[in-house]
Design goal:
Number of strands: 27
Bound molecules: alpha-D-galactopyranose
Enzyme class: hydrolase
Distance between the termini: 25 Å
InterPro entries: Beta_galactosidase_C, Beta_galactosidase_Trimer, Class_I_gatase-like, GH, Glyco_hydro_42, Glyco_hydro_42_N, Glyco_hydro_b
Family: Belongs to the glycosyl hydrolase 42 family.
Pfam family, one: Glyco_hydro_42M
Radius of gyration: 26 Å
Protein name: Beta-galactosidase
């Protein structure tokens, strides 16, 4: 990446060739350097089976090349044309309740369908062959947001594919019966043919079967992706390949199993402008997507210039918010800022979704802000290859997420992303940079590892955490972690069995709180409160930092600290209120030797550093409603306002941004 790429989804098929000429002019004016093109073009380029019409698309590609705009060229397979499902209705996906979905929207394909995959691969072969070596071709964009609308399909084709997947995983039906605990409720299988997807059943379907269906469904979509990737690798080796993950964080796909097959990872991000803390959730997603490739720059492949159309109420982004959000992505490692979409369509379901060129055309606030940001990003190409570094890791695992949110658990209030954000937000507010990593990753490079609700923990992960702490690491584990193995079978002998020695305690019983309930917590004698959960903890060497303040558990441990080997392991038996969790994490980070990017920043200012060849880039982003002044540790120039003049203090307007070059950490 030699610059920060800027642009958006470009859907020229909605417009006449005269508009394409105006598009290219405006793209130049707005410093657009990359467009994602062709995402929904299948019906236009293959109007009848095997009959291709690429002429118009050639013109578009040539115009892009002539205009110096790179194409992130889509494989065009995201929305099959009506003729395909009419000829092969069996490609249409089926919901868990047996309803077969219709064509007429998009993503109307069963990911396991060999018919869909075959037709998609045939089209990709055509597209790749035609545009191999084209000067506009920079990168491939496979499909679009896999798993967005169709998270899982329950049709008979999927059922057969599931059985194959299970045969691969378990080898024998006995092994499957053991993994799925099928002695329970007389569920024992005698033959693979008896197994079905976990469709709607009289009551809770087998949890291990549900968990495997999540795994299988992620793999089924990955299978579609790999089918296309194989064609591209063969026809255009050397052209990088990506696909856009659904933001903010997507439950349906295990990104960790996808990203090894991508050359660069991409995310779509649509925080709600009505949500004053939407940027925190977005930051979490950016830290996660960056960490899936161990810090390699990633692409913000879509965001909205202003409002979306798909929430029940859609706020525009107020002036400056789009710029601030875009810089936040760059601060957290993005090497591209793209939008959905270039030109707002007059018809179709997304006609009220904002675009870089709105219905009102060039003379609009949104376009002016888009063009200004384009020029600004183009002025700092040196940022593109720099990287974010973090001392803190938060563990995230899709298997555990899927298992945590299954039915018939002690409480329905356990939600993985809530748990993540509850622990991430105080670190974010303290300007402590985090990676969000898979639990199997080597952790010794981190000073602190935070484990919110890692319910499913296989023996390898438990060992990873044990050796991390034994080697001197600082660990924070929240409740209901380390409860089951990879088959959702509870560890016996006192929770959380695989970590009891590390944490120096045993959990005897779970005491989830009633809906909306809270419980008192006494931290070093100071009263606080907590929500969601409490539990009966027996210490086995850990010291008690906080006790429950009221109810049946009054006086019993709520937060503990244990030394283990050369390290320290903290345990949170509840979800302390935000201020208390912040105070605890401030204490824990200080003990672990973790520093904020800059100490003492005004409330609402986000600070992140990217490390580059010529120095460190400090990003300061003001999410507050007031202008603030930030004094720098040493004079540094703001690359966005006056790159030649070092300054000692930066004045940040509300939604203001500064990018300083210097040495800060
Ligand atoms: C997703 C899709 C786009 C568009 C946007 C609208 O990100 O990939 O095609 O529908 O949502 O927000």
């Amino acid at each position: 990446m030699d610059r920060l790429y800027y642009g958006g989804d470009y859907n020229p098929e909605h417009w006449s060739p005269e508009v394409w000429d105006e598009d290219l002019k405006l793209m130049a004016e707005a410093s657009v350097s990359m467009v994602t093109v062709g995402i929904f073009s299948w019906a236009q380029v293959e109007p009848r089976p095997g009959e291709y019409d690429f002429g118009w698309f050639d013109t578009v590609m040539d115009k892009l090349a002539a205009g110096g705009v790179d194409a992130c060229l889509a494989t065009m397979t995201a929305s099959p044309p009506p003729w395909l499902s009419q000829r092969h209705p069996e490609i249409l996906p089926v919901r868990v309740d047996g309803t077969r979905l219709s064509a007429g929207a998009r993503q109307q394909f069963c990911p396991s369908s060999p018919v869909y995959r075959e037709h998609a691969a045939r089209l990709v072969e055509q597209v790749a062959t035609r545009y191999a070596g084209h000067p506009a071709l920079k990168m491939w964009h496979i499909g679009n947001e896999f798993g967005c609308h169709i998270r899982a399909c329950y049709c008979d084709v999927s059922a057969a594919a599931f059985r194959d997947w299970l045969r691969d995983r378990y080898q024998s039906i006995e092994a499957l019966n053991a993994a799925w605990s099928t002695t329970f409720w007389s569920q024992r299988y005698g033959d693979w043919a008896e197994i079905e997807p976990p469709r709607v059943a009289p009551t809770f379907p087998n949890p291990a079967q549900q968990l495997d269906y999540h795994r299988f469904s992620s793999d089924a979509s990955l299978g579609c992706y790999l089918t296309e990737r194989e064609v591209l690798s063969r026809v255009t080796p050397g052209v990088p390949v990506t696909t856009n993950f659904v933001g903010l964080v997507q439950k349906a796909l295990d990104w960790h199993s996808w990203t090894p097959h991508e050359d660069v990872v991409s995310l779509d991000s649509y925080p709600d402008p009505y949500d004053p803390r939407g940027h925190v959730e977005a930051a979490f997603a950016y830290d996660l997507v960056r960490s899936t490739k161990d810090g390699q720059p990633w692409l913000l492949l879509e965001q909205a210039p202003s409002a979306v159309n798909w929430r029940t109420r859609n706020s525009p982004k107020p002036p400056g918010a789009m710029r601030l959000g875009s810089w936040q992505a760059v601060a957290r490692g993005a090497a591209a800022v793209l939008f959905f979409q270039w030109r707002q369509t007059a018809g179709g379901a997304e006609k009220f979704h904002s675009a870089m060129v709105p219905h009102g055309g060039r003379d609009t606030r949104a376009y002016r802000e888009v063009a200004d940001l384009g020029r600004e990003l183009a002025s700092v190409p040196q940022l593109a290859g720099s990287r974010v570094k973090a001392d803190v890791a938060i563990l995230h695992d899709w298997n555990s997420w899927w298992a945590l949110e299954l039915d018939s658990h002690p409480s329905d209030d356990l939600r993985q992303l809530d748990a993540h954000l509850a622990h991430y937000a105080p670190l974010f507010d303290a300007n402590v940079t985090c990676d969000v990593v898979r639990p199997t990753r080597e952790l010794s490079g981190y000073k602190l590892v935070v484990v919110p609700n890692l319910y499913l923990m296989d023996a390898g992960v438990a060992e990873n955490l044990r050796s991390y702490v034994a080697g001197g690491g600082h660990l924070v584990v929240s409740f209901f972690s380390g409860i089951v193995d990879e088959n959702d079978r509870a560890y016996l002998g006192g929770y959380p069995a695989p970590l009891r020695d590390v944490l120096g305690l045993k959990v005897d019983e779970f005491w989830p709180l009633p809906e909306g309930g809270s419980i008192g917590l006494s931290v070093d004698g100071t009263g606080a409160s907590a929500t969601i959960w409490s539990e009966w903890v027996e210490t086995e060497g850990a010291s008690v930092v906080a006790t429950f303040g009221d109810g049946e558990l009054a006086g019993r441990p709520g937060v503990t600290r244990n030394t283990f080997g050369d390290g320290v392991a903290w345990y949170l038996a509840t979800r302390p209120d935000a201020a208390t969790l912040r105070a605890l994490l401030d204490r824990i980070t200080a003990e672990a030797g973790v520093s904020p990017v800059l100490p003492g920043l005004p409330e609402g200012v986000q600070a992140v550093v990217r490390h580059g060849a010529e120095g460190q880039y400090l990003f300061l982003l003001n999410h507050g409603a007031e202008a603030v002044t930030v004094t720098l540790p040493s004079p540094a120039p703001d690359l966005l306002t006056d790159p030649g003049r070092p300054t000692e203090a930066v004045l940040l307007a509300p939604r203001g941004v500064a990018v300083l070059l210097g040495s800060f950490t």
